[in-house]
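Deliverable D5.2: sample structural annotation.
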Amino acid sequence: MLAHRAGRLAEAESGYHEVLRHHPDEPKTLHFLGLLQFHRGDRQGGIEHVLHSLRFDPRNARAWNDLGGMFISAGRNIEARDAYRRATQAAPANAEGWYNLGVCLRKEGDMEGAISSLREATVCTAGYSRAYEALGTLLYQLGRTDEAASVYSDWCAREPSNAKASHMAAAMSGRNVPSRASDEYVRMQFDESAESFDTNLEQLDYRAPAAIANALSQRAGGKIPAVLDAGCGTGLCGPLVRESCQHLTGVDLSPKMIEYARARNCYDELVTAELTAFLHQRERAFDAIVSADTLIYFGTLDHVFAAARESLRDAGCFIFTIEALDPAVTDDYRLQVHGRYAHSESYVRHVLAAADFHIDALTRDIFRKERDQAVPGFLVIARKNQ
């Protein structure tokens, strides 16, 4: 087991086989040999060894959980569900088994079963952050926002230092709303979603990068010397704006997002930093700043707009998308139940003017969907006054 943990897999496998030569039914050895074989590519052999171990130790919840994960990786979802159910029977107070079972049931379309299992995970003694998040997200997507709000409130009470719990509790309840999303929340949210980010946005008919790139190209009149992609994420804007600029910089708070942006090979410079602080450090460095849906994680916009002005050269342009607040709402901005901020048109115009920008265009459009509903937004083209 020590060799296994240290990555000396051939040594570990040899050792496990030596144990089994003397004790052919020793369950722990069968379990860990199965894991090793599975991860080395022998999926069927690995599964068979774990199943063998469970014949002699059927109360081993960890082995049932591991078996469920192996079945998931092998595309055997029904067998995975059954393995996770056995894990919950073996250890009813273990949140991980309930969480995994809930995820399986959700994939199968059994939403009530998924909700029930995820609730069980949240009330286990040790608790399970991922279960709170999965349950809150599922209830929100089903339109059961009051129940989702209760879940996030419970999560926040249980883990008051968890940035995601506190942000979503504020979004759902409308209480203790921060003036912007915390750095920790943004970093957590996007580090965790980086791998599936592009795919998820495709499913939401995401159009903001294309709208940004089109607006920039219309203003280019030749290549723009220096452009900043503010909140570049995985770099969706990068390939689209590359032809309009000589030098392209990307900045994002999430290191994982920056890794994916780097893989696109279209940025001259990539920086992991908080946006407002970065802009203050790059005085008069850019001829244009583009930002696709980054400012939806800011409530108040005065600081970031002032920093953008400092970072632009004379007559530099600032092109961004932002979610639009319902005109019937009188607030300047509001943290929506999905965790993003929406802003009123009048507020955006006011803060841009205060930061000494001239608005060349402010148009209302649809850039994404949420729960199959169109989300209205603004495309803004502003120019720094000289």
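Annotation notes: The chain has two domains: 2-177, 197-384. The first strand starts at residue 224 and ends at 230.
The annotation will be released with the project's public dataset once the embargo ends.
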